[in-house]
Amino acid sequence: MGNCLACGSTVETVLDFGKMPIANGFLHEEDFPDEFFHHLQICFCPDCSMVQIAEPVDPVMQYHENYAYFASTSSRMRTHFNAAAIQIRSLLKHRADPFIVEIGSNDGIMLQRFAKDGVRHLGVEPSQNVANEAVRNGVSTQCSFFDESTATEILRKHGPADAIYGANVVTHIPDIHSVMAAVEILLEDDGYFILEDPYLGDVLEKTAYDQFYDEHVFYFCLSSLQNLLGKHGMTIVDVEPQQVHGGSMRYFAMKKAKPSTYRLETLQRREKDLGLSQAATFRGLNDRISASKDQLVTILSNLNRERKRVVGYGATAKSSIVTNFCGIGPDLIEFISDTTPIKQNKFSPGTHIPVKPYDAFVEDYPDYAVLFAWNHCGEILAKEELFLKQGGRFITFVPDVRILEYPGSAND
Ligand code: TMP
Ligand code: ZN
Which ligand is closest to the CA of 279, given by its number? Predict the structure, then answer.
């Protein structure tokens, strides 16, 4: 048994997914023999309630010049991060010359708003290719990991940050105390540290087991994050649930405590009801995950027997977990369609399903498409009216495995 990355106590293994590839490691055929696999196990810490990966993968294997995730590929995410920027701006509206720092700023999707408005900002992004894209978008970006030395350097050059924002990034960093210490260094005494990540409560309620993959080292909830931030002199002063990434939570922390909010108290109650501070809750998830796997494999095997054409929609990191855990290969899914150029004409990690440009989907509609990007369901269903109208159907597996009904268009 290992030790908790957040508090050092002995953790308990609650989920075991077996051998897994790097979830965003889309690869060429010549790289199949050297493909890297790791043992994906999820642990729970009985002392601080942190849910985490048992053995984090070396970040060098994950974030590099070929990093495959560009946040701006989704119009919904663009809208989401623009709204986040507006919210941060309004939190800081009384400050003379605010300075906003984003950890893992990706292609500049959030900071763009500040860049356009001439507000002081800096993105810190370790993957060179996405950082370059941010710079092309006019966003001040430095390519590095966010740690104490980076924070000290930023502080020296720009002064303290009024807000530090990190969306879908802090949960990716095994050396979590280094990030927290860096925030402590850089954050203004009355500044906001705003974190946003897929919410553990949603993972549990929706059996969204595809959120468990190598990049997600931690699975935060209010209680575990509060324990962690408390060690670094910060308190969560408010929370705001978000619809993106299948259910996320935005946490607002400060060095100064504030009176509790209604939203904070509501979330505390929800976490108590869900049992997020008990190992048994997560062990109980095992049965639901196994049932989900059996159902998905049954649907796909039946369609295969009926000689239906089935493709995947969205070569998400999440799809790598589902296909590997369920043993779904090119025999059951002809190809996965994705709009991200860097993933196209490669193969899915581990299961080696071809990844093709979106055109391949449109030019010859399949009978069924597995909605690997289920978290973008609304956006995709609206976009794929034609596919649905001519008889195509989406298969989803979160929260349940089923073929989505087509209610018909409003004009029918
Ligand atoms: P995400 O779930 O991590 O946001 O990744 C979404 C992936 O799905 C990304 O590779 C882009 C792809 N995608 C499409 O191919 N078509 C779409 O319409 C959307 C919304 C996403
Ligand atoms: Zn712990």
Answer: 2
